[in-house]
UniProtKB/TrEMBL annotation:
Protein name, UniProt field: HNH nuclease
Pfam families for this protein: HNH (PF01844)
Matching SMART domains: HNHc
Positions of the HNH nuclease domain: 85-135
Domain of life: Bacteria
Natural source organism: Prochlorothrix hollandica PCC 9006 = CALU 1027
A GO molecular-function descriptor: endonuclease activity
Length: 176
């Protein structure tokens, strides 16, 4: 088997995983951004046994960028707050998909327990619904309307938490 090829992928399009000061995987950045973090002293190389490195050359400087870097300072993202319940954020959480039928067009917001029945405007009670499903459901609960939610609505997680979950799923050998 030949090694995987990535034709047309320039060096700056390669990506590097950024770990927090506490060694939690946080995000993936491009090589250029990683180089800036290293050169400005905001991050350090985090060499792992099997990691690859890339060499960036510019006049008077050769910079080795590994596949993983670690931030030296405490992560400013820890001040992240749960976003407000609005159309933009709810659609983003629901991946721009109607939570009843999976449609991706004519999207609206639906209160699972209707507001007229005391349903709150909260992450747990607001979902993305297409106009058709919203109209069909009307002023009823999903059960009353005979409709089923694809997922149980909840507040979005911290972006770094989502990234870390994904990272460990893809790199399960690191946990050994
Ligand atoms: Zn729908």
């Amino acid at each position: 088997m030949s090694p995987p090829q990535t034709p047309g992928l320039s060096l700056v399009q390669k990506s590097v995983v950024v770990f927090s000061k506490n060694y939690l995987p946080m995000a993936r950045v491009n090589l250029k951004r990683a180089a800036v973090l290293l050169v400005t002293g905001q991050a350090e190389s985090l060499p792992l046994d099997h990691s690859r490195c890339w060499q960036l050359r510019s006049p008077g400087l050769i910079l080795t960028v590994p596949e993983q870097i670690r931030l030296i300072h405490t992560n400013p993202e820890r001040h992240w707050k749960v976003p407000p319940v609005n159309r933009r954020e709810v659609l983003k959480r629901d991946n721009h998909t109607c939570q009843y039928c999976g449609s991706r067009s004519a999207l609206t917001l639906d209160h699972v327990l209707p507001r007229s029945k005391g349903g709150p405007h909260s992450w747990q009670n607001v979902v993305t619904a297409c106009e058709s499903c919203n109209g069909k459901k009307g002023d009823r609960t999903p059960t009353q309307a005979g409709m089923v939610l694809k997922t149980k609505p909840k507040a979005p997680a911290h972006p770094a938490v989502l990234f870390a979950e994904q990272f460990w799923q893809q790199n399960s050998c690191f946990t050994a």
